[in-house]
Amino acid sequence: MNICNREGGRCAEMAMVCLTDFEEYAKEHLSKATWDYYAAGADECCTRDDNLLAYKRIRLRPRILRDVSVSDTRTTVQGTEISFPVGIAPTAFHCLAWHEGEVATARATEALNTCYITSTYSTCSVEEIVAAAPTGYRWFQLYVYRDRKLSEQIVHRVEALGYKALVLTVDVPYTGKRRNDIRNQFKLPPHLKVKNFDGVFQQETAAPEEYGIPANTLDPSISWKDVYWLQSITRLPIIIKGILTKEDAELAVEHGVQGIVVSNHGGRQLDGGPASIDALTEIVDTVQGRIEIYVDGGIRTGSDVLKALALGAKCVFIGRPAVWGLAYKGEEGVREVLQILNDEFRLSMALSGCRNVAEINRNLIQFSKL
Q1: Which residues are catalytic?
Q2: 36-53 burial, b for 16+ CB within 10 Å, e for fewer?
Q3: What is the pLDDT of residues 348-358, one digit of tens each?
Q4: Cα–Cα distance list, 275 to 128, 210, 245, 311 (Å)
Q5: Which residues contact 29 (CB under 8 A, 6 or more apart)?
Q6: Per-residue pLDDT tens digits for 79-118
Q7: Nearest-5° angle of CA 232, CA 319, CA 253?
């Protein structure tokens, strides 16, 4: 962001203080179609907006005089230590926001030692991402396609490349209705591709496309039995993304998965479902620590991170804010977004009387005011 001194003609760069600053910058600098794509929610965007509002309804119960002179934000996910409990959620088409795309995102998360969930719909290939950030900690977000061989091939690719988990996205048997994408007739520009499937669909170029690949490629018949199929073709831990009810959380545990991402897909799928953070408590109470639980959707401040952890999440994941960071300054912008969240989280912890992540618990939440 530049603020110009009209008299002197000089421009001073304004400090990016919070994630909203990056959002405003991205909205101003991205094309309308690109901004609308990233910002889109399904239908009337009620669930997308409630993801944000739900955090504002939650109040903290800070404890005082706890000697918070030393604080530690480290935690572990799937047995691997990360520097703080904020990772990057799977978001598509990073090259729309910055020319280096997912390569820049991967470098930023490597630098801050946290988890990056690479999207199937990335505009850099999984090989390019690994080459750019060889020591980064990465999971891979997977869709199941009608052609199971497609899914199987990419599972084997990412396993060989050293990805540490598969994040099976289960809330997209069909794509939600995103009105602005329809109005804008959103398509990837010709110079960008869904790189992980580069060349796979070349014979079908005349077919109608949906977000970079032929329409009707996703398999709407996906069911719990496909979790067993996935377990049969890989040794990687399987984390299910898109669970919002205790019933499905229990089924996930019964099917032997290693984690759940409580998620409504950023409000981009079913409009009228719960905010992710509002669904978290019943899932945590059902799972009872048998597997790890994460949450995405609506995290914009360090105190949001604290609230999610107090309600039982092991880690949170951010989607749109990472893209705003890319739009601002590529790798450096993503690093700034993550660093701001880390600093805010550390401060919120200290002001609430928590010295480390282990001290964050549900006593920190004021339920009577929810």
Answers
A1: 265
A2: bbbbbbbbebbbbebbbe
A3: 999 999 999 99
A4: 34, 26, 12, 14
A5: 327
A6: 999 999 999 999 999 999 999 999 999 999 999 999 999 9
A7: 35
